[in-house]
Design brief:
binds guanosine-5'-diphosphate, 7-stranded mixed beta sheet, Rossmann fold, globular, alpha/beta
Length: 186
């Protein structure tokens, strides 16, 4: 595991990479824990002091899972949001073997300008974006499907969204399959 607070600390490009990004509180730490299965790996929000580093985890010596910092902290000053954009853009622009980005959105939340800006950063660079609608267990199946359609229309990710829950494991296998497909280049 390597934590990079700025571009000069990024590891040299090597293994394929899949990055994970989301608004603060969208459920990124929970999803990383559910995927990688080691509670220590991911930080959880709710403690003071935001993380402004990009964290690279090597998985099975085959690929890197790249944990991008969360955005949209309620109390974040403008300068901090600008710092986030600069760091994340530096990562996207560093000619890395980036096979796709998993973007997390709380299934109950209406996307705002920051969410749209993220999607724009990805589409400007032709980076595949797999949308994950998190905390799906908070809604019944029918409501999940409706929200999934609304979010897809609002955000237009390049890859079909998945309703996901760490509680019920809904969507987990589908997401793992997507990662596998991207890293193996199939
Ligand atoms: P992060 O800020 O994006 O890393 O978000 P966290 O992983 O810390 O999650 C934020 C809050 O949402 C925590 O209270 C989690 O317990 C909760 N949460 C995350 N995923 C789920 C989920 O799938 N279902 C439910 N019900 N709660 C979740």
């Amino acid at each position: 595991m390597l934590s990079a607070p700025n571009e000069s600390a990024f590891p040299a490009p090597g293994l394929p990479e899949v990055a994970i990004v989301g608004r603060s509180n969208a459920g990124k730490s929970s999803l990383l824990n559910a995927l990688v299965g080691r509670r220590k790996l991911a930080r959880t929000s709710g403690r003071p002091g935001r993380t402004r580093a990009i964290v690279f985890f090597e998985v099975e010596e085959r690929f890197l899972l790249v944990d991008l910092p969360g955005y949209g902290y309620a109390t974040a000053p403008k300068a901090e949001q600008a710092g986030w954009s600069k760091l994340v853009a530096a990562y996207f622009d560093s000619r890395r073997p980036l096979r796709g980005v998993i973007a997390l959105f709380d299934i109950r939340r209406t996307p705002d300008d920051l969410d749209q800006a993220l999607l724009q950063m990805l589409s400007d660079r032709s980076i595949a974006c797999k949308a994950i609608w998190t905390k799906a267990d908070k809604l019944k199946r029918r409501a999940q499907d409706l929200r999934s359609q609304e979010l897809s229309r609002a955000l237009a990710p390049t890859e079909a969204g998945i309703s996901f829950s760490v509680k019920t494991r809904q969507g987990r296998d589908e997401l793992l399959d997507w990662i596998e497909t991207r890293v193996s280049g199939r």
